[in-house]
Amino acid sequence: MPFETLIGLRYTRAARGARGANRLVSFISLISMAGAAVGVAALIVVLSVMNGFQEELRSRILGVASHIQITGMHEPLARWQQVADEARQNQHVLEAAPYVQEQAMLSHEGRVRGVIVRGVLPADEEKVADFARYMREGELEALHAGGFGIVLGQDLARMLNVGMGGKLTLIAPQGIVTPAAVMPRVRQFTVVGIFEAGMQESDTALALIHMNDAQALYRLGDGVTGVRLKTDDIFNTRTVMGELASMIHSDAYIYDWTHGHTNFFRAVAMEKTMMSVVVFLIVLVAAFGIVSTLVMAVQDKRADIAILRTLGASPRSIMMIFVLQGVIIGIVGLLAGIALGLLLANNLDLLVAFIEKITGLTLWSKEIYYISELPSKVLPADIAMIAAMSFSLTLLATLYPSWRAARTNPAEALRYE
Questions:
Q1: What b-and-e string marks burial along 194-205, b requiring 16 or more CB atoms within 10 Å of the CB?
Q2: Do the beta carbons of residue 87 and residue 93 sit within 8 Å?
Q3: Which of 13, 56, 186, 227 has the most CB atoms at less than 10 Å from its CB?
């Protein structure tokens, strides 16, 4: 083992019976290691939560929405079959399904809620969305033309105090003109299914009925609101929309899944960046701790440095001793931080549940964060980036104290020894 490595390892810890200053330097070394570990762990947890939040939110949005939607410009889409066939000719479009979407009010036992009513063809809807995985009771296939069945979000069903088989009244805003007044269209529906997408806006305000029932209720004839498409890559929808614009021979709007959520996803990305910067400051503080540790070590070891110089050690060797000491502190802290960060990131749901149970507080609310569970996704690229960044900071932190050590004058250091 090179003597620089041997001495660097020796300086990192205090020997038995070491004097007070030596023990103090070793204690500060432990504090620096702990600071680096906490900073790295916090950065891993924050990035993992933000990655998981973005993916889970995107997944849940696409569970009830579609990748691309084509709607009529100023009136219902009359030739939706032709539009669907033209869209399927695009190599990136996998499936297409028509839908009707309107507003309504649901009433049950004196409770009234405004909702978005979506008329779907169950067999086609399953091809462009993931309602099957979110069904808690019943199934989407229970919607039949003329059966006037309805599938509700779990929170919406709870607000209306209605369960499976319950009868509720749907009130459409489009009225019927009579000599006496304009009367709203009213129809009784039977609850045939309840879903929980984990998205507050869907679970509290979305109701599904059969498309034929929606066409009859809203007097659309054979027209629909639009056609929902599923593509082979959700991140390529902008390109696909451009291609579809030249393929669709009807007056229609074309927009993708980010429509209505663009600002939200930008806010999430900005929050991820800012949180990373804030937590990065913890790692930076740990780097300053390494600087202070090495400065104190250089001051404490001035006599040792002078003796090594008189024995023939070069300034480069002296510099390497303290660089190695700082790097060892940083690497130990980095490895401990990665281990702690992975442990926390992979068990966040258990940790949050435990804290909520102990404190009685609600740390994660679906009404605030849109989804019902705290997600976490560890990306190897993030771990590599954090490790490289932390190691670079550690290495930079060692340069100045090590350079000061290499410039120590043996005669000056030994003058009063």
A1: bbbbbbbebbbb
A2: yes
A3: 227
Element spanning 206, H or E: strand 206-210
Q: Can you name the residues that pair with 253 across neighbouring β-strands?
A: 71
Cβ-contact 112, 106 below 8 angstroms = yes
For the ranges 169-178, 202-211, 263-272, the maximum mean pLDDT occurs at 202-211
Confidence band for 311, pLDDT divided at 50, 70 and 90: confident
pTM value? Answer: 0.63
Min mean pLDDT across 243-252, 264-273, 379-388 is at 264-273
- Express each pLDDT in 69-80 by its tens digit: 888 877 888 888
Q: CA–CA separation, 174 vs 166, rounded Å?
A: 25
**Cα–Cα nearest to 366, from 134, 146, 201, 190:** 201
What's the distance, CA 111 to chain centroid?
35
Cα–Cα distance measured from residue 11 to residue 331, given in angstroms and rounded to the nearest whole number: 15
pLDDT above 60 for 399: yes
d(CA 334, CA 328): 10
User: Is residue 373 within 8 Å of residue 349, measured between CB atoms?
Assistant: yes
Beta strands 182-195; 149-153: pairing state: parallel
First and final C-alpha spacing in the chain: 30
- CB contact set of 392 (below 8 Å; sequence gap of 6+): none
Tokens representing 166 are 């319950």
Report whether pLDDT(177) > 60: no
Strand partners, 77: 224
**CA–CA separation, 323 vs 397, rounded Å?**
9
Q: What angle do CA 394, 307, 331 make, to 5 degrees?
A: 15
- Distance, in Å, from the CA atom of 392 to the CA atom of 158, rounded to the nearest integer, reads 54
How far apart CA 169 and CA 275 sit, in angstroms, is 47
